[in-house]
Design a protein that fits this description.
heterodimer; A: 281 residues; 2 strands; B: alpha/beta
C-alpha cells in the first residue's frame, strides 16, 4: 500500500482522537450555557435564595465557595510549597524522605469522600471546630496538598543545579540561592500546581459535605466557625433533594460554578505566562 | 587577615580526594604564587577541575566524597573547623566553563554577590558595578544597557559578565574552569587579555581549554595526569623544556 496514504490515514485517525477529547468539553459547556444561561441575572448572582431555593439567588453559595477556596489556599500553599522546597532542595535520600514521598502519593489516591469523613472526625468532632468554614477549608487543604507538593517539587527540580552552584560560589547561603534564584525560576510551575489543586478544591462536594456545607442558609457567614452554603453542594442539593426544582436554576448554578472555576483557571494561566515571559536563561 | 609576602597565596598540601571510592586526586602538593596566572592543565579526568573546586570548597555540597590533606589560603587551613565558608567564597571567586547569567539584568547579575554580602550603599554598588565590568573588559559594550536582561548578551559577553560578577566581590583569588571553552577566538582573546590585567591585583588559577591557551597565559603551569601532579614549572619552561617525559609527550601532542 502507498505509504503516504497510510501516513495520511494515520494522521486523520489521530486527529479524530484529539478531537474526541475536545468534544465532551464543548458539549458540557454548550449544554450548561444553553440550559442555564437564561437563569443568570443580577438577582441570581446577588440575592439570597427564596421559596425553598426555587427562587431568588445563590449569593451565599458563591461567597461560601470563594471563602472556602481562599481558606484552602491560605493553609495549603505555605505548607505545600514549603514541603516541596524541603523535599527538592534539602532532603537527602533517607527512609524518612522516602516515607514522606510515599505518603504524598497515597494522599493523592484517597477518594474525596474519605477526606470528608476524615475532616468530620478530626476537625469537626475531635478538635471541636464544629461544622464550619475552618473545618471545611482544612479538609480541602489536606486533599489539595499532594497536588501542590508534587507540582512544586517537579518545578523546583526543573531548575538547573548550576544556578544553585553559581549562587553558592558568589557567597550565598543555600537558602539565599533558593529564595533569590531558584524559587523565581520555578514560580510558573508552582503556580500551575497551586491553581490545579485549588480548582479541584473549589469544585469538590464530598469533602465539604460533612465538614462545612449548609443545606439552606440564606445569610453570609460571620466567622470561620460558621457554616456556609457552597456551590458544589448547593448544586447537589437542588438537583437531588428538592422536588420540583426548575431545571434552569440547576443549570444556572452549574454555569456559575463553571465560570468561577474557569476564570480562576484563566487568571492562573495569565499569571503563569507573565512570570514565564520574565524568566530568562 | 595578614598576608605573608614571602609565602604562596595558596598551598595545596598532600591532598587526596575520592568521589564514591574513585580517586580523583592523589597526594597533590603545589604552591600557587600571588599576583600571577597559574595554569592547571592536562588531559580530561586529570583532577584539575576537582582541585579548583576544592580551593573554594564548592565540593562541600557533593555527597559521597573523601578528602585528606590540607588547603591553605594565606597560611590558613580553609578546611579547619570553624572556617567561615561563605567568607571564603567571597575571597576566592569562581568562573565556570559555561557562562550562566542568573535571571535578571546585567546590573543584578554583577551586584548579586555584593548585595548578599550586605553592601547597601548606592555609590559603592555603582562603583563596584562599573569597576568590575571594566576589569572584565565588558563595560564599554554594556554601559548603556545595564538594566537589560543578561540573557540577551552574546556567549562571550555572558562569560565576561560572569567574570565581572565574581570580581564584584573583590576577591583575592579568581578560579576559572575552562572559561573560554564555549567561546569564539575573538571572545577568547578578550577574556585572556582581561586576565593579564587582572593578575596585577589578583591571584589567578585557570584550567585552560587547550594546551595552546595554557602556553599563552601561564606564568606558572602544573601538569596533571590521572589525579597526579606530574610537573609544576614557570610557564616559559614547562612548554619549551619540560623535565618529565610524560609532560613532553602531552605538550608536543603525542597523546591527550
Amino acid at each position: 500500500m502507498d505509504r503516504y496514504l497510510v501516513q495520511r490515514a494515520g494522521f486523520a485517525l489521530l486527529g479524530l482522537m484529539a478531537l474526541m477529547v475536545v468534544l465532551p468539553i464543548l458539549l458540557v459547556i454548550g449544554t450548561i450555557v444553553v440550559q442555564g444561561g437564561g437563569a443568570i441575572s443580577w438577582e441570581f448572582l446577588s440575592a439570597m435564595p427564596r421559596d425553598g431555593m426555587k427562587a431568588g439567588g445563590i449569593f451565599p453559595a458563591i461567597v461560601g465557595t470563594l471563602l472556602l477556596t481562599l481558606g484552602t489556599a491560605l493553609v495549603a500553599i505555605p505548607i505545600g510549597v514549603g514541603g516541596a522546597v524541603y523535599l527538592a532542595e534539602y532532603a537527602r535520600d533517607t527512609w524518612l524522605t522516602r516515607a514522606i514521598r510515599l505518603a504524598i502519593i497515597n494522599l493523592a489516591g484517597i477518594p474525596s469522600v474519605v477526606y470528608g469523613l476524615f475532616g468530620l472526625g478530626l476537625f469537626v468532632l475531635f478538635l471541636q471546630f464544629g461544622t464550619s468554614i475552618l473545618a471545611g477549608a482544612l479538609t480541602l487543604a489536606i486533599m489539595t496538598l499532594p497536588i501542590i507538593i508534587s507540582a512544586a517539587e517537579e518545578a523546583l527540580r526543573g531548575v538547573p543545579t548550576e544556578f544553585r552552584t553559581v549562587s553558592i560560589s558568589l557567597g550565598g547561603t543555600r537558602w539565599q540561592g533558593i529564595r533569590r534564584v531558584v524559587l523565581p525560576q520555578a514560580l510558573p510551575g508552582i503556580i500551575t500546581g497551586v491553581i490545579l489543586g485549588l480548582l479541584r478544591a473549589a469544585g469538590e462536594t464530598a469533602p465539604i459535605l460533612f465538614t462545612v456545607a449548609a443545606f439552606f442558609l440564606p445569610r453570609l457567614p460571620q466567622s470561620p466557625f460558621d457554616q456556609t452554603m457552597a456551590l458544589p453542594y448547593h448544586l447537589y442539593v437542588i438537583s437531588t433533594q428538592v422536588p420540583g426544582m426548575p431545571l434552569q436554576i440547576q443549570f444556572g448554578t452549574a454555569l456559575v460554578l463553571l465560570i468561577l472555576v474557569l476564570s480562576l483557571n484563566v487568571l492562573a494561566t495569565s499569571i503563569r505566562s507573565y512570570f514565564r515571559r520574565r524568566r530568562q536563561w | 587577615m595578614t598576608q605573608t609576602q614571602s609565602g604562596p597565596k595558596i598551598r595545596i598540601e598532600k591532598v587526596s580526594y575520592a568521589y564514591e571510592g574513585k580517586p580523583a586526586l592523589r597526594d597533590v602538593t603545589i604552591d600557587v604564587p600571588a599576583h600571577a596566572i597559574s595554569v592547571f592543565f592536562g588531559p580530561a579526568g586529570g583532577g584539575k577541575t576537582t582541585l579548583l573546586r576544592l580551593i573554594n570548597r564548592l565540593n562541600d555540597v557533593v555527597e559521597g566524597t573523601h578528602m585528606s590533606g590540607r588547603v591553605l589560603l594565606d597560611g590558613q587551613d580553609i578546611y579547619a573547623p570553624g572556617m567561615d565558608v561563605i567568607q571564603l567564597r567571597r575571597r576566592v571567586g569562581m568562573v565556570f566553563a559555561l557562562p550562566l547569567p542568573l535571571p535578571g539584568t546585567i546590573r543584578e547579575n554583577v551586584l548579586y554577590g555584593p548585595e548578599l554580602a550586605g553592601v547597601r550603599d548606592r555609590t559603592r554598588l555603582e562603583e563596584l558595578l562599573s569597576r568590575s565590568l571594566t576589569q572584565a573588559a565588558l563595560w564599554d559594550e554594556v554601559k548603556d544597557r545595564l538594566d537589560n536582561p543578561a540573557s540577551a548578551l552574546s556567549g562571550g559577553q555572558q562569560q565576561r559578565l560572569c567574570i565581572a560578577r565574581s570580581l564584584a566581590l573583590e576577591p583575592e583569588v579568581l578560579l576559572l574552569d575552562e572559561p573560554t571553552s564555549g567561546l569564539d577566538p575573538i571572545s577568547t582573546g578578550k577574556v585572556e587579555e582581561s586576565l593579564y590585567e587582572l593578575k596585577q591585583n589578583y591571584t589567578i588559577v585557570i584550567v585552560p581549554h587547550s594546551t595552546q591557551q595554557a602556553a599563552r597565559v601561564a606564568d606558572y603551569a602544573a601538569f596533571f595526569l590521572m589525579g597526579e601532579l606530574i610537573e609544576h614549572q614557570p610557564g616559559t619552561e614547562i612548554f619549551t623544556t619540560p623535565r618529565q617525559q610524560r609532560t613532553e609527550d602531552y605538550v608536543t601532542g603525542r597523546f591527550g
